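Journal club prep — side note

Before the paper discussion, L.F. wants everyone to see what a predicted structure for a comparable chain looks like in token form. Sequence:
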Amino acid sequence: MELKKIGDVTFIPGGVCAAPGFRAGGVQCGLSHAGAIPTAGKNDLAMIVCDTMCTAAAVYTTNKVKGAPIQVTKEHISDGKAQAVIVNSVNANTCNPDGVEKAEKMCRYAAKSLGLDEKDIIVASTGVIGQPLPIEPIKAGIPPLAESLSYDGNTAAVQAIMTTDTMPKEVAVQFHIGKKQCTLGGMLKGSGMIHPNMATTLTFLTTDAAISPELLQRALSDVVNVTLNRVSVDGDTSTNDMVCVLASGAAGNRVIDSEDKDFEAFETALYNVLLNLGRMMARDGEGATKLIECTVSGALNERSAVTVAKSVITSSLFKTMIFGEDANAGRIYCAVGYAETDLDINKVDIDIASRAGRIAVGRQGCLVEYSEEQAKAILSEDEIQVIITLGEGTASATAWGCDLTYDYVKINGDYRS
């Protein structure tokens, strides 16, 4: 899919290895669902490490049930520092009495192989919830994984964090802070159990920019709120979701320690990476065939615009309408109408658009006549835009989602097998 560019950045390859000084890798250590055979050739253990100590920040799931790795990672980066990441797929290490102990062991084994302090390791897991995590395969897999790390190992790493994902998701950009060229890249895992308010994904970000822990956390929280927190696939909030960022400072820019133009440049780079990773996640929603982008303008405030956009992209009836390529705009008005915000439905206009064109389907709260043939052509594309104007003010917001298909049920009906 085509990358969207906002501001003065240049897209480059490399993902988490795009920034100089970061190595990554992935191996298959033999994890599997209970009773299942490991998938041949599928990596299930990944590592990222920087040549030097980094500033670190993270945001986490809002689910009251949290995976054990989150508890350990929160403790490890409480000083604003980290140097490496160890992450497994297949098993979420959640709702297990020995979960924290095993997450700590993952850090200990990784630290030993890398010659680091275990407190400087970020740990994450994704996969089936509620099954004990087999620690022996991970213990055996970490030394060869550490040996395999390379400055172009991002592909092996991103493949290791995929579960029901059908494609790897990586983005990297170059940008300038002052006269220094900086790089920021990332990889994301996410396809199902995707819903707003920091319950979307495992995402790992690396940069050579120099920035204080406080401003790194501020930037991450700000940008996640307007990107990943506006993506929904199925309305389910996962237990293990985390976005973390490591900043090495190797680019040699003046340390960003105030919200000035340098901070804005950093946030713009971060926005470009997370915006496009989020769009990839929505497009790769479990069983999805289409990416949906809903833009709401004319709102009294941003909160109202966000509420309406999320209401539309999370509507099951709307999502099945997009899958069926049936321009039943009444479903869009319905989702707008039950959004938990004040608005006058008699002012609301709705258009649908894609590469095939754009048409009006609603004006001032009422459906309007349109060509069913043209509407079908618009909805037959794999990226669909819904444009909603509230007629109340000047605020706007965008949210992303996907259609709801038969395959979503098939994938989740036998997820453990």
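L.F.'s comment for the group: The chain is about 30% helix and 25% strand. Keep this in mind when we get to the figures.
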